[in-house]
Amino acid sequence: MLFLGFILTLWPILFVLLYIVLNHIAKPRHSVCIIVLGDLGRSPRMLYHAKSFAKEGYEVDLVGYSGSKLHEDIQINRRISRHYLWEPPIFVKYVPRLLAYVLKVFWQSTSLGLQLLFLPKANYLLIQNPPSIPTLFVALIVCLLRGSFLLIDWHNYGFTILALTLGGDHPLVKFSKWYEKFFGRFSKANLCVTKAMRDDLKTWGISAETLYDRPADLFQEATVEERHDLFSKLSLAYPIFGSRNELEQDSTVFTYRSASGKIQYRNDRPALLVSSTSWTEDEDFGILLKTLQSKYEAVTSPEFKFVQSGRTLKYFCKGPLKEFYSQEIDSIEWKHIHFCLPWLEAEDYPVLLGSADLGVCLHMSSSGLDLPMKVVDMFGCGLPVCAVHYPCLSELVKHGHSGLIFKSSQELCNQLQELLESFPDDQKTLKKMRCNLKSFQAIRWHDNWKRTVLPLLKQHRKDKKKR
């Protein structure tokens, strides 16, 4: 008992001494810790940040949850270290909702705080928002203790996402909004995804620089050979991609190998539509189902395939509404349309986008202030998009130029028929949009990042020298 009392008395002192020692084990001058309170593999923008920092000579610590497989260029990068947080215990799922939320926040605060304190000191802490609770508070405390520079990348607002399930008048939503607004003001610098969000943050007293999402280099239009290889690979698990003629060898429903050995497109190939989704409440997949069922199925038109895809296997499967819409699809007898919900490897996702004929975006935005990164990826592959309207979407999708914007299932139906009615013989409009996307494809993530983020860091170093 005496020994136990001795330990309980001294452990706070020992912890402080240990922290002082660890706090002085600092990494080189250029170092950054990037925090994602979520699956790292489902946070492409933050992974792009990590690669850009590493490319500019920074040592990078990535902190977040495991789950989705990270792209190989992250795994093999010697400047990027990955640190995974502990998942909340399973029993949290079986307690009342409010109690589960409190327990989860306590667990995340503890695991994130300990992880950050025991990592070597970083010059910069870059956090993704949302989620806001408890990330903002924990990151702020760590920065105050260690003298790090806090940088917030505002992707959206956490309280608006919470309001999708709880309603805007719920006390927890109101608290979340106050929390986000209050602690967000303590950051040293801020990034955001649109000009509309930048202007809205000003009303909170927060100054931010707009860093538009741009595609990574791996998002490119696929060659006919790359498409053939992908469709052949997918056909092993999903016969829908295979040739309709069982006697044909080395062929798919879209491509075939000619007698001369050259890969060519089939003249009777169907159109390939792709919609990337995480199956969450801010995407109304029902709009597309209603369009295809009540409108497109009712007309006599060339068969086309609709392929529903996710960024990675985990990203695709974790959406809470996936099962609901899967049952909806299965309950309908389709005549002209084939659905396929493939499990894609991370490397196959860009190739699928680069092989598609048209993208469909159903992202509604909980705040109306963010932009769908899935469209950025599609544009990077030169893929035109039909996207559902919301206030700031025009910052990305130019109607009639790089895609079409619709407000109802009827409008979407008209657009699909206009673009695909004579496919593949008449692709004049699609080709024009692809041509218009060349200028967008010319500017990639890292070049855009250097013009926006590096000046912020340089300014911080100047200000620090003055002090």
From TrEMBL:
Catalytic activity: an N,N'-diacetylchitobiosyl-diphospho-di-trans,poly-cis-dolichol + GDP-alpha-D-mannose = a beta-D-Man-(1->4)-beta-D-GlcNAc-(1->4)-alpha-D-GlcNAc-diphospho-di-trans,poly-cis-dolichol + GDP + H(+)
Membrane topology designation: Single-pass membrane protein
Transmembrane intervals: 6-22, 98-119, 131-152
InterPro entries: ALG1-like (IPR026051), Glyco_trans_1 (IPR001296)
Annotated Gene3D superfamilies: Glycogen Phosphorylase B
Entry keyword annotation includes Glycosyltransferase: yes
Chief place of localization: endoplasmic reticulum
Species of origin: Mizuhopecten yessoensis
Example of a GO cellular component annotation carried by this entry: endoplasmic reticulum membrane
Protein's recorded name: Beta-1,4-mannosyltransferase
Domain Glycosyl transferase family, chain residue ranges per copy: 297-434
Pathway(s) annotated for this protein in UniProt: Protein modification; protein glycosylation
SUPFAM superfamilies: UDP-Glycosyltransferase/glycogen phosphorylase
Pfam families listed in its UniProt record: Glycos_transf_1
Superkingdom of origin: Eukaryota
Protein keywords: Endoplasmic reticulum, Glycosyltransferase, Membrane, Transferase, Transmembrane, Transmembrane helix
Gene Ontology molecular function terms on file: chitobiosyldiphosphodolichol beta-mannosyltransferase activity
